């Protein structure tokens, strides 16, 4: 029986996640499987991968063939490197401790690189948030200046109207006085 390590598609349209399974190559994509060894969720940033490392290594060593996507996932998680290192131990190129040391060094480098990418993403997100906040503050300041200008114009217009009303009232009083004085003469 030819076994494959492959992805099954689950989830809704445009939001899929994928269990990583061991299945007979003749079984349907989302059908029967022998064992589930992990999952892959590409919807998160970065993609979330959970994998049972020991079982994945076991199945790769007994001859299960991973699909291209699963092979890249296994390489990213270090399963393929560990298979390669165990092959070197079997051939006598180095011992088990040396293989484990090399794997641990690789894993430390990978974790450092992953942490650097995470830090870069979080710094970018913080910079974007700060830029949006600064733009919002500038927009609010401009709007506040515009409102203050409109209020000042409104107050000036009201004062001008009040002044004009006072002048008109004063002129009316003066006209009344002039007419009273003219009628007395």
Task: Kindly describe this structure.
- By secondary structure, the protein is an alpha+beta fold.
- Strands 1, 2, 3, 4, 5 and 6 form a 6-stranded mixed β-sheet that branches.
- Helix 1 packs across helix 3 and helix 3 packs antiparallel against helix 4.
- The longest helix has 89 residues.
- The chain is rod-shaped, with a radius of gyration of 39 Å.
- The N and C termini lie far apart (133 Å).
Layout of helices and strands, plus pairs?
Elements: E1 3-7, E2 10-12, E3 15-24, E4 35-41, E5 48-51, H1 53-61, E6 65-66, H2 68-77, H3 79-91, H4 96-184
Parallel strand pairs: 1-6
Antiparallel strand pairs: 1-3, 2-3, 3-4, 4-5
Strands, count: 6
Along the chain, the helix and strand elements come as EEEEEHEHHH
Q: Give the CA-CA distance, first to last residue.
A: 133 Å
Could you say which overall geometry the principal axes of the C-alpha atoms support? rod-shaped
Average pLDDT works out at: 91
Radius of gyration: 39 Å
Specify the number of helices.
4
- SS-derived structural category: alpha+beta
Main CATH class of the domain at 3-93: Alpha Beta
Give the % helix: 55-70%
List keywords for this structure.
185 residues; alpha+beta; 4 helices; 65% helix
